[in-house]
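Need residues for this backbone.
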């Protein structure tokens, strides 16, 4: 049992993250963050650091805490819990307050075959 009763999942659009999201919703009866965000008292973010930063910016004015699970390669901001111990890992997590950097970046590589996540939005 966890202190968070309504956990919603938001994931990156990557295949691995989407598959894990579906699995965790079924296994733990979590909420789909794309549909039930207002009911959530914890956001479980699946993906990499970029996904976490996007979600932090999108929901920065809510009082909902975030818990990130790495579905990529590095994931400095993310956790790597065993699925069998996920609720325990969430319950034992220590809260930290982050202040994501807001900035505008330019690149000579936009529109020249650079990966999609580096393109201007």
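Answer:
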């Amino acid at each position: 049992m966890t202190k968070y009763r309504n956990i919603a999942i938001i994931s990156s659009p990557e295949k691995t993250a989407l598959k894990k999201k579906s699995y965790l919703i079924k296994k733990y009866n979590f909420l789909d963050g794309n549909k039930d965000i207002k009911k959530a008292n914890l956001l479980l973010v699946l993906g990499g650091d970029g996904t976490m930063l996007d979600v932090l910016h999108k929901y920065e004015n809510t009082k909902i805490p975030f818990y990130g699970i790495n579905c990529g390669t590095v994931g400095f901001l993310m956790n790597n819990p065993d699925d069998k111990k996920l609720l325990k890992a969430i319950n034992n997590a220590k809260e930290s307050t982050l202040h994501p950097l807001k900035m505008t970046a330019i690149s000579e590589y936009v529109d020249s075959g650079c990966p999609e996540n580096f393109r201007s939005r």
